[in-house]
């Protein structure tokens, strides 16, 4: 009897009601890219660093750390000592090398399955401790934030962040939404290199945001997936968080080492929650450990050892800091090259935002139709919101990309010219 005949004879058809889940927008881009046989196709979908040849790289700091941890026992599960080292070293990047928070043990930290896992742990904690609360997410934000908080059964609301006309920050609207949220709300903030817009508040704007959070008694949860990618300097990219710390906020912070160490496959991250004292920190940490235990027990050890070694060995850390700068600089160079190329082509549209925005992404302003044409006519792939992963732009493909963008925006350019003529 075939298996399908056997299944038909069964009383209960367990999975008949199940339909496929909607595709993840970023995975869909990758699938379309992989299915395209064109030799000069370009993938601008994935937020993963690529070198100027368009290739993924293993950082020198990772090679050096790997050599030093070679003799570790990767078959044992994580010990407390291994986890604590990762947490302590990661916390220094958030709270500062000599921070009292760390000396006094005033934070609860746990290793997490990269940035995604860290966000998920926090969402679960929020639901557990504040079941009636909601999370305020920037509009737009990394699409998975919506999924994570939805699956943790935490209510969501968005706050205004991006202004499509200026392709910059809608600061007034953002402040209004913070002001109008009920006192004591949870807000998710990207401290640097906002995904997908590449638009970060200025230092002064962060100060105002922090002051307003104080007045409103809101809780800031920072998702820091790209530390180093905005400015090339990890300390500078932590500035927003440091402002909140100086203002005396308690914060949460998700960290990822996927991008800034190029360790996507190892899934190494950290979640820390700042508390008033050590007693609270012990309690929160035990809650987080319990949540993690039901989800995956303990995280894989290899990546944790790699990251801990990079962060704790002064020579390897120095190499890493230099490599972060190199990656950020290359991305910045590509921003300048893309804008330059579009301007040289005589585009009448304003492309300043390409260089004003920071980090891995450029929120280009391209419409879904234009994105579609880029894929169909030019074999260039990006998400439908027009987000360009600048890491996929190289010296070799930048002019081709600019030319394709110039072509698909021709009607926008005509409209702008007509508009200027009639003004
Ligand atoms: C804002 C933001 N948070 C978290 C993540 C998840 O990163 P990870 O790959 O470390 O899980 C991403 C990845 O794209 C992101 O853009």
Automatic annotation (TrEMBL):
Report any Pfam family annotated for this entry.
Aminotran_1_2
- What keywords is this UniProt entry annotated with? Aminotransferase, Pyridoxal phosphate, Transferase
Which cofactor does this sequence's record say it needs? Answer: pyridoxal 5'-phosphate
Domain called Aminotransferase class I/classII large: residue spans: 41-405
The top EC class, named as a word, is transferase
CDD domains, sorted:
AAT_like
Can you list the GO cellular component terms from the UniProt entry? mitochondrion
Question: What EC number(s) are associated with this protein in UniProt?
Answer: 2.6.1.1
Which branch of life, at top level? Eukaryota
Chemical reaction(s) catalysed: L-aspartate + 2-oxoglutarate = oxaloacetate + L-glutamate
Family assignment from sequence similarity: Belongs to the class-I pyridoxal-phosphate-dependent aminotransferase family.
Record function comment:
Amino acid aminotransferase important for the metabolism of amino acids and Krebs-cycle related organic acids. No activity with D-Asp or D-Ala as amino donors. In plants, it is involved in nitrogen metabolism and in aspects of carbon and energy metabolism.
Protein known as: Aspartate aminotransferase
Species name: Corchorus capsularis
